[in-house]
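Deadline looming. Please check this record:
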Amino acid sequence: MEKSDQNKKGFRSFSKNFWTVIIMEFFERGSYYGVMSVLSVYLVLNVDDGGLGFSKESVGVIKSTITPLLYLLPIISGAIADRFGYRRVLMFAFAIMSLGYFLTSTVTSYGLVFLSLLLMVLGAGFFKPLISGTIARETDESNSTLGFGIFYWSINLGAFIFPLILVPYLKGISWSYIFIMASIGTGWLLLLNLFVYKEPAKPESKKSILEVLKGIVLVLKDYRFVIMIVIYSMFWILYFQMFDTVLWYLTEHVDMTPVNKAVNSFLSLFTENPGWQFDPEHVTVLNAGTIIALQLIISSIVKNFKALPTMIFGIGLGTIGMGILAISMESWVFIAGIMIFSIGEMTAHPKFISYVGLIAPPDKKALYLGYSFLYGVIGSGVGGILGATLYVKFVDGMNRPDLLWLIFTGIGVVAIISMLLYNRFLAPKR
């Protein structure tokens, strides 16, 4: 039997537990991105149109709080899961996440919506490291690369399918149904966790939460690593605009009629009188779809290139994508900008992860990779409030969206120059 298992290759080499967590990841990320693809629009939309009517600045505060928590909580949740068991922590994560989504569908006051979303992100933050942790323990050197490739595909597949199919339909009934969908999409995973998921083998050493927190002090003493994270986070300030200012801009200023006509002309080959239209949720669909279609191609092209120059090139592409939005409000220009930004993202980010592994001390690679997510804490923490403030000033106040995108393009240019200087003067010579 053992010999038979060892001879299995490809998809057949993975355990039942592996496919169980892939299903969990697909539904959790699909629910999350389904909500995030329209959340900022729903929160600012007029009450008469089915929204909550919050100010953009107040939404910026919400986003600059919940998204950084999503990147911070895994520090603690990973250590808790190692000590108390993955299944127990997953039960907590799915229960609190599903509750948070459901409550968001029922409340309308700013404070209660904020609290409901905090519950959601608490669950999502505890869930986040447990799936990759399970995959790491259910794979070995022979199938780890394929296993994590399937893992990343499941994330983007969820981010592609839920906003493309479910969100437009549910939104047509009631915006609250989107949150109910996410509540069901994560709530049923309690059953999968209870009856199918198996506790993976325990790690050889379990770190206490205090030991985990001491690790951040150790990492932050490495000033080169910290500087690189801060520089890279500038690019992610741009990325997080895809869930806020870009959605407001699309809703309020971009006429997508030419795109709608082209898509419906194609769909008319298969169905009569299609009525498809490009809505805010399709920005997430476009981003995830571009990654699904091109990630393997991009990865194969850049696999032999050095990490830092490739990161700089990817940030450059992303910056160009953001700059394109400043050229015109024309729909195809908008589409081109989002797609080019997505190509830049998929070029830069895998190399960033690879680079962290390369520069980390041999005995601290896991520690450095664990704290490399700080780019998301800084990028989303700054990006939410900054984006909302600039949007209100330049777009709502001056009707100059081009200035908004030029400012973010400038941030990207600063990131490129800073990364070039880092590469020249600070990057470890290896």
Observations:
- The domain at 208-430 is CATH 1.20.1250.20 (Growth Hormone; Chain: A;).
